[in-house]
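Hi, here's the filled form for the chain we discussed.

Project: internal
Contact: R.S.
Residues: 667
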Amino acid sequence: MGRYKLLACLLGGALSCPVQAQAETDGQIVVLGEELPVPPGTPAYGSVVITRDRLTGSASDRLENILTDVAGFQQFRRSDSRSANPSAQGATLRAIGGNASSRTLVLLDGVPMADPFFGYIPFNALVPDRLGAVRVTRGSGAGAFGAGAVAGTIELVSADRTMLPAIEASAFYGSNDATQLSGGINRDLGNGYVSLSGRWDRGDGFWTSPRDQRSAASVPAAYDGWSISTRAVTPLSDDVDIQARALVFDDDRTLRFAGADNHIEGQDASVRVISRGPWQVDALAYVQARNFSNIVISSSRFTPVLDQYATPATGLGGKVEVRPPVGGAHVLRMGADVRRTSGRMQENAISAISGNVTARRRASGRQTVAGFFVEDDWVLGPLVLTGGARADRWTIAKGDYRSLDPVTVVTTQSDFPDRHDWQFSGRMGAVYRLSEAWALRGAAYTGFRLPTLNELYRPFTVFPVTTLANAALKPEKLKGIEAGVDLTPVTGVSLNATVFYNRLKNAIGNVTIGTNLNQRQNIDAVVAKGIELTSNIRLGQVSLGASYAYAHSKVDAPGQPSDGLSPVQSPRHAASATLTWAPASSGASFSASLHYVGKQYEDDLHQTALPDALTVDAFARWPLAKGISLVGRAENLFDARVITRNAGGNIDLGTPRILWIGLRFSQ
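And the returned structure, exactly as it came back:
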C-alpha cells in the first residue's frame, strides 16, 4: 500500500482501507475498479465510513436507514422509501434543514445522484448489497462537484470484484405480505470483470394513518419497485482501467389514500477512466434521465385534486481530475467539473367537487455549474496539511411558469430572467499525530448550493398549507469551522469527537407569510453548532459502533417571527448504536441496532411538533449449508410509534414493526 494511502488509513481511525488486490502499480497495491487513493489530508475533515459488513447486515436493507448510523444524517421526514413521497427524500447533515432538497452531495462512484429537478435522492435504487463502502463527511467541502456540498458529502463506492461472489441471490418474506427478491452474477471477463444485479421488492404496505384518523378511503402505504444495475471494469494497460456503469429503476407507491399514487423512474449511465501512473487521472462522464408523477387526493372529499402527471428531468456532466507527480511529501489535485440539469413539471389542478380540470400548469428551467478546483495535501512528518479552492460559474436560465384556466382560457405566464455569477469557495485543514494513540485535527471551509428548479418555479400544496415558489431565490452559502480529536488507545478501538460551528447564509426555507400560506424564501442565516461523537470497538467476536450528534441549530433572522427558533425538521439530538456478535468459526452473525431522534418541528413557527422517537432493530444470519444462510430481520422490534408528519393534529406514522425471514445464497 502506498505511503500516502497508508498514512490516510492510519490517521483516519474509522476509515477502512482495502486489503485485497488484483494489481500492483509502482509498489502500491490496488484493486481493479476502485477509485484513486484517498489523499492523506482527508482525515482532517472527520470522515466516517460504513463498511460492507454493515451494509449487508441491516434489518431494513435500505440505504437511507443504514445512513442513520451516522448521527446527524436525516431526510426531510422520518419515512423511508416505502412510505415517503420521493420528492421529500432529500439528504442533509448537522440539522441545517428547512425544506426537502438535499444539502448533502450524494455521489455514486463519483456521479451526483440528486434528482435534476427536485433535488431528492432515489434511495430506492441505491441497493446496499451493491456497495463496498460509504464515506460520510459532515461539513462543507471543495473538490470535484463541490457546488452542492453545503452540509457535507456522502460518497457511495461500488463493491469491487474481490467483494462479490460469482453468483448471489436472496429471497425474503415479511410482514404485510411483503417480498424482496435480489440476485447478481459477477464474472471475470478477460483481465477485467462484469457485474449484473437486480432487486425487486413490494408490499401491501403498513398504515401511516392512526386508527382514529382513518376513513373509508384510507389505505396502507403499498409499494412496488425494482432496479437493475450493471458495472463493467477492464484494464486498458498496466495502470489504466475503464469503468462503465448503468442503472435503471422504477418505483410505485400509494400514500395514505386510495388513488394517491406516485411513480418515479430513472435511467443512468456513466463511464470513468482511472490512470494510476506517474500522472494520476480520474476522468468521468455521465447522463441521467429521470421522471416523477404524483396524484394528490383531497383529505375531505377523497377525490383527486392534483395530477402531476410528468416531471421529466435530465442531468449531464463530467469531471477531469489530474494528480501530477510533484514528488515526496505532496499530493496535488487539480481539475474541472461541470453539471447541467434541466426539467419540466406538468400538472393539472382538479376540482374536488366536479372533478373537472381547473388549471393546467407548467414550470421548467435549466441550470449549469462549471467549476475549477485545486487541492494540495502536504505531509510533514506527524503533521499533514491540506487546502483547496474552487471557482464556479453558475447559470440559471430558461425559467418559466404557465397556468391555463381551461374554462376562461385565461393564462398566467411568467418568463423569468436568466441569472449567472461566479462563486468562490475553499477549505483547509490539518491533522497532527501526537502519538500512536492520539491525533488532533481542525478544518475551515466554505461552500454553496444553487436553489433547485423545484424551489424556484413549482408551487405545491400539502393540505391545508400551500407553499409558493420563488424564482428570485439566491444561492445558499455556508462558512464553517470544526476541530476534533481521534483516539486509538488499543487495537480495535477508535474514539472520535468533533465540535463544529456552521453558518448557512441565505438558507432556503418554507416561510409562513399568511394563514396556511408559505413561500420559499432566503432566510438571513441558519446557525448550527454542536458536537459529534463516534466510537468503533471490536473485541474478538463482538463489535460496537455508536454515534451521537448534538446540534444547537437556530434561525438568525432579526425582525422575523422565526428568529431564534430551530429550522424546520431539525432535531437537536440524534444517536445510534449497533452491537454485533459474529462467531468466527460458525460464519453466523447477530446484531441489534438502536436509533434515536429528538423532538423536531413541522413548521417554521413551531406551532406543531414531532415528538422524539426510539426504535430498535435486529438482524440474524445462520449458515445452513455451503453458500446458503438463513436470515431473520426485525425492523422497529418493539413497534414504537414514530410520527413523521403533523399538520394541525392530522398525523402520519412511520415504519411499524416489520418481521422478515429469508434465505441468502452466494457461491
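Let me know if anything looks off before we file it.
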